[in-house]
Design brief:
This protein is α/β, with parallel strands linked by helices. Helix content is about 40%, strand content about 15%. Strand 4, helix 6 and strand 5 form a beta-alpha-beta unit. Helix 1 runs antiparallel to helix 8 and helix 2 packs parallel to helix 8. It binds pyridoxal-5'-phosphate (PLP). The site of pyridoxal-5'-phosphate has 14 residues, from helix 3 and helix 4.
């Protein structure tokens, strides 16, 4: 690695003075959590995407859990998920005692394939959780058509796809429940954090309660059932009821202040990621044994990842060897993802075995995510391309 070069991780945050000032303001204020920044962030996020409601929670995983619970997923239900995703997509189904059903993906994009989803449906199917892998939105019209025919719900794990569009419509508005993560490698960060967007008032209220222990302060007589039987009156200032089992999934004002400052930069962040992806595509298109990520004409990807596929068998070299060599040149790469059902928990608890989703398993053997993040320069991209070509040819 040339001494003048900084290590290039596969992804990282970008923090400027505006972010710092935004967080410091909150530190000097009266509210570190449960204050005004939470609603401000939610409103700004909902307005940015053009959706009615946004619920801030303390991780993308909490967002998935809250959304899956609001969708009514429960014991004995089946939920269709893709295997090429982060484990949290399937875990949120397991949290609720339901069974994740892994459906194989489309070869070109590694997204859920609506035709294959149709083959995974059963009388127990309650929902589909689509994952906008690498930032490319799924074919939501096709998934909704299927869901309508079978009276099931479509949710979007859009943790990779903030800023992406599907047939001109923004991700976050495409299903009844759309989840986002603000982990530092994602498009915008709050350190840890997540969000769910919805335009359904009932789902919104369920999730607001779910993130706060299931507690409600709503004074409408319908919800406040306990007040009748006790001396308390439902309109008393101090009065609250726990209507359902919930969690503490609240996001603090500190995190939300950072989120607000980051959200103002989202368009720049996404635009730069698109430039980087285009530059990789241009410079790697003729690279032997390498398959580049493809984009459907109806999609505008937000490029959370730039996952290439390398035919390591024909190359006669292992992925580990290539990754180690790149690391030695100052380049971090990662594998997104090990098919979720191959993890020991899923094999043991649910009896899943190799061979379930052949396209996903074949892709897993070949996947390698190259660095992509806002502050990468064109020179950084060219350096990665040069090093990769060298390593593959040597
Ligand atoms: C990041 C991510 C999550 C989980 O988000 P956390 O904020 O880390 O809990 C879930 N699903 C996908 C696809 C992700 O990339």
């Amino acid at each position: 690695m040339p001494p003048s070069r900084k290590f290039l991780p596969y992804g990282r945050q970008f923090i400027d003075d505006d972010d710092v000032a935004s967080v410091v303001d909150v530190l000097r204020s009266d509210w570190l959590t449960c204050g005004p920044k939470v609603e401000e962030f939610e409103r700004a996020f909902a307005a940015k995407l053009g959706v009615e409601y946004a619920v801030a929670v303390n991780s993308g995983t909490a967002a998935l859990h809250a959304a899956a619970c609001a969708a009514g997923i429960g014991p004995d239900d089946e939920v269709i998920v893709p295997p090429i995703t982060f484990v949290a997509t399937a875990n949120c189904v397991a949290f609720l005692g339901a069974r994740p059903i892994f459906c194989d993906v489309e070869q070109s994009t590694l997204l859920l394939d609506p035709q294959k989803v149709a083959g995974c449906l059963s009388p127990r199917t309650k929902a589909i959780i689509a994952v906008d892998y690498a930032g490319h939105p799924c074919d939501y019209d096709a998934l909704h058509e299927l869901a309508r025919q079978h009276n099931i719900m479509v949710m979007a794990d859009a943790c990779h796809a903030l800023g992406a569009t599907y047939r001109g419509r923004p991700v976050g508005t495409l299903t009844a429940l759309n989840t986002f993560s603000f982990h530092p490698v994602k498009h915008i960060t709050t350190a840890e954090g997540g969000m769910i967007t919805t335009s359904d008032r009932v789902l919104y209220q369920r999730m607001m309660e779910f993130r706060n222990h299931g507690i409600t302060r709503r004074t409408d007589a319908f919800e406040m059932t306990m007040a009748d039987t006790m001396t308390a009156s439902a309109d008393a200032m101090w009065y609250y009821e726990m209507q359902a089992l919930g969690y503490n999934y609240r996001l603090s004002d500190l995190n939300c202040a950072l989120g607000l400052a980051q959200l103002r930069k989202l368009d720049r962040f996404v635009a730069r990621r698109r430039e980087i992806a285009d530059r990789y595509t241009e410079r790697l298109v003729d690279c032997p044994l390498v398959t580049l990520p493809s984009v459907h004409p109806w999609a505008e990807s937000a490029w959370h990842l730039y996952p290439i596929r390398i035919d390591f068998t024909r190359l006669r070299r292992s992925r580990a060897e290539i990754m180690n060599k790149l690391r030695g040149m100052g380049i971090g790469t990662q594998v997104h993802y090990i098919p979720v059902y191959l993890h020991p928990y899923y094999r043991r608890r649910w009896g899943y075995k190799n061979g379930l989703c052949p396209i996903a398993e074949k892709a897993y053997e070949q996947l390698l995510s190259l660095p992509i993040f806002y502050s990468m320069t064109d020179d950084d991209v060219d350096y990665v391309v040069d090093c990769l070509r060298k390593v593959l040819a040597s």
